[in-house]
Amino acid sequence: MVVSNLKIGLFGFGCVGRGLYHVLNNNTGFKASIESIVVKDPSKSRNLAQELISYDRRNILDRDDITVVVELIDDADEAFEIVSEAMRKGKHVVTANKKMLAEHLSELIELQQSYNVSLLYEAAACGSIPIIRTLEEYFDNEDLKRVSGIFNGTTNYVLSRVNGNYSYSNALQQAQELGFAESDPTNDVEGFDPKFKAVILTLHAFGKIVRPEDILNLGITTLQEEDSRYAAEKGYKIKLMPVIERVGHNRFTVFIAPRFVDTGNQLYNVDHEYNGVIVEGLFSGEQFLQGRGAGSLPTGSAVLSDISALSCGYRYVFKKYLQCKDLEYTDDVLVEIYLRYNIDTDISHFQWNKVEEKYQSSRYGYTIGSINLSQLIHHRQYILEHKIFVCMISDNLSQNTNQINI
Amino acid sequence: MVVSNLKIGLFGFGCVGRGLYHVLNNNTGFKASIESIVVKDPSKSRNLAQELISYDRRNILDRDDITVVVELIDDADEAFEIVSEAMRKGKHVVTANKKMLAEHLSELIELQQSYNVSLLYEAAACGSIPIIRTLEEYFDNEDLKRVSGIFNGTTNYVLSRVNGNYSYSNALQQAQELGFAESDPTNDVEGFDPKFKAVILTLHAFGKIVRPEDILNLGITTLQEEDSRYAAEKGYKIKLMPVIERVGHNRFTVFIAPRFVDTGNQLYNVDHEYNGVIVEGLFSGEQFLQGRGAGSLPTGSAVLSDISALSCGYRYVFKKYLQCKDLEYTDDVLVEIYLRYNIDTDISHFQWNKVEEKYQSSRYGYTIGSINLSQLIHHRQYILEHKIFVCMISDNLSQNTNQINI
Questions:
Q1: Whole domain around residue A68: which residue ranges?
Q2: Considering the entire predicted model, what is its pTM?
Q3: Has A31 been annotated as catalytic?
């Protein structure tokens, strides 16, 4: 399958869409033509030839000469409609919509096989870092122990400010003013965005599809000055760190939570909007990849790289997924955490496997110890409502041996 | 081209060969069988079934059922004979021999095209970092500004010791005792090994083949305590840093030389046997990749990754090379350097473009300023013989505007 005569239909002309347009027009290597751009809001002014723009998705989906659909809109449901229809019509698709992907991975793989088309989505995870391609092709034959990192530029930007002694709310406000955070930042700061990315990377790293709703995502919205002071005193930075990790012989876990990292950790110096990914292979050891996690041109160039790969007939083969290894998702695993609570909060229903440290003042307290991940999933809403801050303190995971009643 | 029934003939059973053997036998994902191993020295004892071993290359090259040759021997000339014969016989080849590759790139590309076989060599550059694959596939359509990094684990190990206040000769001795440096370390410490790797990466990053003999390689053999003290006082570490960089509109340069790096540089924390590569794209910005640059299993796993890719029909397409862009190698470029000399050395024939600092004591002196790269190439032998230490002090390169007589 080599796609010649590459005619592109583009959905969405936001930050990434504009980046792609710029990169495609200013690149000397690869050429492809955008035939039509479908956008939503007719009232927005766009620096584009009028005949390129339309407001009806049929103008792309019904055109037989358009062989590649690039989907860069926000709405995940609408994106799935567009992408799946495009694939059923025999069009190849490039998308950056992590939520849509995370929620529909099995259907999308099936569509790819049934309609013999290619679906690529490098720009959906970690901006310009070629992590999906690297997992899919380079580590396709190696058993991985762990994939972790910083997958979200917005929270990392906010945390870089917090680590520089701003309060969370000031840091968030600054990030919003500078365009690094959206006006409704929930998706990022509560850790949904990195969770969707983790679901996608789990497929390529371990060959398994996990439902987003089964995975814990704790964000940084409950971060208080006590927490950043604690981190600073210990020489830590706080990072929002998704972890995908093999546990024991045939289980693996995935969670998104803040993490104290020290200078010995590769991620310590990954600041601002940068993303970083650590891949630990059984034989290759630790690989580290860093790059811009966001931004119009870096993400646009990731999309272009997919389009270029399409033109060479590239598609993901999902080797580990198709091998159907005996590997099961679990949340029954012990993690080592710092849990800070305000003094009026009852935390007695958190059942600890082991408590290492306890601290309490007239205003707040914290407990350090190991707890079952499922406890955190179970109490997530309580954690958010009571402004409890939970932060991982180590990479140690262990299979739970004691029975804990929740 | 999908290679089914993957039967491998392996040349060499040293560090990487043993690593491959281990990884192949302990990996759950990908299976291929090593049918025959040709080695040189019958007197060495090897932990292998006797029937696997032979001492005659014909036992692999003449067997039609062996479809893949993995070449992991030291000798570059012999390696080229083996690899080119294997390709002419329609066998696919995986090699880690950077010297052989750097010296024969055009012939090998031609053999690949003429005989419709694939030649892969990820393990030839930067161990387990998938840098060739990343350049070849992910950045194939993007104009790059610069590729730099730490490409040699041995010198980086030695320099990590030097930066920790050992003298160069003590550090080298330690590295040799621990097996990180060979008994004749010339290839590494004089910068030939990273130069061969730079030649290979230049092909994939810029699409151009440069002859190794046209490229400056200054190593670390002339490093004295004055130099490491200078670095420590300024908060620098010394790294051996190959640079491949676009200069002006249609020229590029390549050189291998020590470099003072500060904490702001990604490479500052790449210590010991680790390698790191920084790829700067026109649109994607700065990407950083780090991993083990040496070692039996990491390099073995890189070889296996190539074998696995072969089985899926993968081959390098050398897109930038075949595009034949108007881009020319030059050594006519100004670099900013620190040049330390011993007091009895005449350095008056080094012609500086600009001198920023001069220091002299009763034992040694140094000059900091900008000089034409071609001057350093011209005086390389003199630099080595007189134990002059040359170290780059910045990333700034500029096209030379003044005429300098050499």
A1: 7-127+296-323
A2: 0.90
A3: no
